[in-house]
Amino acid sequence: LPPPRPVRGVVLVGLMGAGKTSVGRRLAAALATPFVDSDDEVERAARMTVPEIFATMGEPSFRDGERRVIARLLEGGPRIIATGGGAWMNDETRAAIRARGAVVVWLRAELDTLVERVSRRAGRPLLAQGNPREILAGLMEVRHPVYALADVVVDSHAGDRHETVVARIIDA
Ligand code: S3P
């Protein structure tokens, strides 16, 4: 039997490179539920890329847009939402997600795994400021305690198949 469709939204949080978008897309297919990526939606609304938004309007504007986009997406019926890694760190965004009753999943990965995965795609302004490994290690320290406020934690190890991680989320 296929898993039942979620009646609440599912919000994936976690660091850059955790696999929120790739896993989220496949989770959505498995649950026959629409998928959206908050970075894509912010880019569409702003008609600029994430690096352009950071460069021209600054990170606070990006965070503001991100919160509004996520809140709006959660109002349109159950969806699987991959958020940008900083979304859940923002008090107002967290409150907006909580207020809409979504299930929050922390996709957790080890530092080596994150470093390897972020090297596959450019366009992350926070990592362009220095050594990605050092930046991710610093973000881990600050962000892990806050990601831990999620409803469920699911590990994504190097070499795990997307389907394996999807199955872990559905089980959780
Ligand atoms: C960010 C993560 C990015 C994007 C922006 C900032 C962060 O999304 O929202 O570059 O603060 O961790 P991904 O987690 O999808 O890379």
Structure description:
The protein is of the alpha/beta class and 172 residues long. The chain has one domain: P-loop containing nucleotide triphosphate hydrolases (Rossmann fold, 3-Layer(aba) Sandwich), CATH 3.40.50. It has helices at residues 20-30, 38-46, 50-57, 59-75, 91-99, 111-118, 132-147, 162-171; strands at 10-13, 35-37, 80-82, 103-108, 152-155. The protein has a five-stranded parallel beta sheet with strand order 2-3-1-4-5, with helices on both faces. The model has no long low-confidence stretch (mean pLDDT 96). Bound molecules: shikimate-3-phosphate. Shikimate-3-phosphate (S3P) binds next to loops. Shikimate-3-phosphate binds at residues 16, 20, 39, 50, 84-86, 124-126. It catalyses: shikimate + ATP = 3-phosphoshikimate + ADP + H(+). One of its GO terms (molecular function) is shikimate kinase activity. It is found in: Cytoplasm. ATP binds at residues 17-22, 124. Mg(2+) binds at residue 21.
Write out key terms for the chains shown.
172 residues; alpha/beta; Rossmann fold; five-stranded parallel β-sheet; 8 helices; 5 strands; 51% helix; binds shikimate-3-phosphate; ATP binding
- In percent, how much strand structure appears in the residues? 5-15%
The total count of strands amounts to 5
The CATH architecture: 3-Layer(aba) Sandwich
SSE series: EHEHHHEHEHHEH
Mean pLDDT: 96
Number of helices: 8
What kind of oligomer do you see? Answer: single chain
Name the CATH homologous superfamily. P-loop containing nucleotide triphosphate hydrolases
The CATH topology annotation reads as Rossmann fold
- The gross shape turns out to be globular
Biggest sheet statistics: 5 strands, parallel
Radius of gyration from CA coordinates:
15 Å
DSSP helix fraction? 40-55%
